[in-house]
Design goal:
Blueprint (H helix, E strand, L loop, with lengths): L6 H5 L7 E6 L6 H14 L4 E5 L6 H5 L8 E2 L6 E5 L2 H13 L8 H10 L4 H14 L7 E5 L4 H7 L5 H7 L2 E2 L2 E2 L7 H11 L5 E7 L3 H16 L6 E7 L8 H20 L4 E6 L8 H13 L21 H4 L2 H8 L6 E6 L6 H14 L4 E5 L6 H5 L8 E2 L5 E5 L2 H20 L9 H11 L3 H14 L8 E5 L4 H6 L12 H6 L5 H13 L4 E7 L3 H18 L3 E9 L8 H21 L3 E5 L8 H10 L16
Helix pairs in contact: 2-12, 4-6, 6-7, 15-25, 17-18, 17-19
Amino acid sequence: MSTQTGAREIVEPSGEDTEFVFFSGKGGVGKSTVSCATATWLADNDYETLLVTTDPAPNLSDIFEQDIGHEVTEIADIDNLSAIEIDPDQAAEEYRQETIEPMRELLDDEQLETVEEQLNSPCVEEIAAFDNFVDFMDSPEYDVVVFDTAPTGHTIRLMELPSDWNAELEKGGSTCIGPAASMEDKKAQYERAIDTLQDDEQTTFAFVGKPEDSSLDEIERSASDLSELGIESQLLVVNGYLPESVCEDPFFEGKREDEQAVIERAGTEFDADATATYPLQPGEIAGLDLLSDVGGVIYDGEEATVEVGSATDVDTDQSVDVEALADPESVTEQLTPGDDTQYLFFTGKGGVGKSTVAATSATKLAEAGYETLVVTTDPAAHLEDIFGEPVGHDPTSVSQENLHAARIDQEQALEEYREQVLGHVREMYEDKEDTQIDVEAAIANVEEELESPCAEEMAALEKFVSYFGEDGYDVVVFDTAPTGHTLRLLELPSDWKGFMDLGSLTKGAAPAKGDQYDEVIETMQDPERSSFAFVMYPEYTPMMEAYRAAEDLRDQVGIETAFVVANYLLPEEYGDNAFFANRRAQQEKYLTEIKDRFETPMMCAPLRRDEPVGLDELSSFGEEITGLAELKRDEEVVIS
């Protein structure tokens, strides 16, 4: 642990009021482990503690080895500690019912149907989660409430819309989070909650990440987003670095050196009051002894205990043939274009390596003779770093025959979208003298709503849509597919009243825009034209987050997952000791579960000493990834 102030001083309550500790981080970085360890440490230090998670893939029950669920539950064998796993689907439904119930006697059936459709907005799920945060931020019976999964800058910005609530309420307008009238009772609560989040005397905001440059880059972006909203990050926990004692060959020695360089960078570059670290364990962290070890290291400065065990801990009778799980022929079939342009979508949470997999796939497709375009919508936008060449907002040629690349610049896309929407609003009311609507006020409201994070999603989607029907490409590879959340924004009712409706404004911004969106979604739903692939590494949280997202795409938008990518598989030729034998056994367990859950072909990609950079390394890496080495163009297929 390092830097100006100890982690203990940051999280330990210092006053009479309830204090709050929020942990943020991507799936699979150990955020839940650190949250549970923090809550356990606080309870052990005689603070009455509540642990709350709204994670869609909660694993508090696994970590504490007892059932928890949607109700506050006392944790066995730990005085002063209770926990709750909020079910996001149940919370969203409760929010919808709470919102619509008072309107049943005021609205007719048609109006009620419109409101019900509106409350299917994906933004409502985020607001429902925030509603639960608000409830627990008024809990005087606890000294401290620890939140596993903090509200993002995206969510908090939704809460700040619109700033002129009263004007919107009087107008009876709509927002992307529901009818404005339903927000009236919430206004003061949300404002108090945001004030509390911005008060660093009452609230601690902590990030958890892996010892990887990409993970730290993503944390820095999130922290900057929160800082703009007046919320400062006070603690960074870098979790899962390789213990020196188990790195016995050049491969893992090199990996450890890279990790230590990231840890050093985190301590010097990240603007937090304290940075703490915790090593990778041979298995998943569960049980009170390991939680106490994590808390002791982070908050008391103790040395970490790494119980390596022995190779006999691994059940060799249950060992899995990883090669047998892979399906090269089926993967190749999903990647290979037919008579029409093929669209490939690689999606997954930050840090799972989807950009590298997407760039490698595009490189091998181009090598096989297919005219290929790879596009990233990832805000990290490090496609340029992977290729080692400039990649602009519009398609540019990469130094490989048949290969082009583009990076959607979010700011530029948002500006283009903003001009389009405002132009449409002005055109709607131009020369309408009999209108009772104050046009300038309407435009001002739209300008305000265009500050919503939903507008950023719609802008990126607008640019994304423009790549469908691009002439001259056999295949278009998308790094970061639109989520079910984003696609559902297009399905919102197009006849809403009011000016806060980005979905209908976008649909009406050009004569055939709505039809164009419908065609794009139909193309994505067609397995002959489009293939969606979820990238993950074989651990519980990345697997569950990918599975939930895949279910959302299928149930909400009608898009099936074509194949999955299991990344960062430990190589057999390195790490010949009990520590890595146990890690491999854990990976094999989850590879089997991934295969069972998704029931789709699996592409397997090994962990490398360094991420591939440049076309030669991408080509070489492609030979190691299931399905890519088999790509070869059938010369009889010509894309018109």
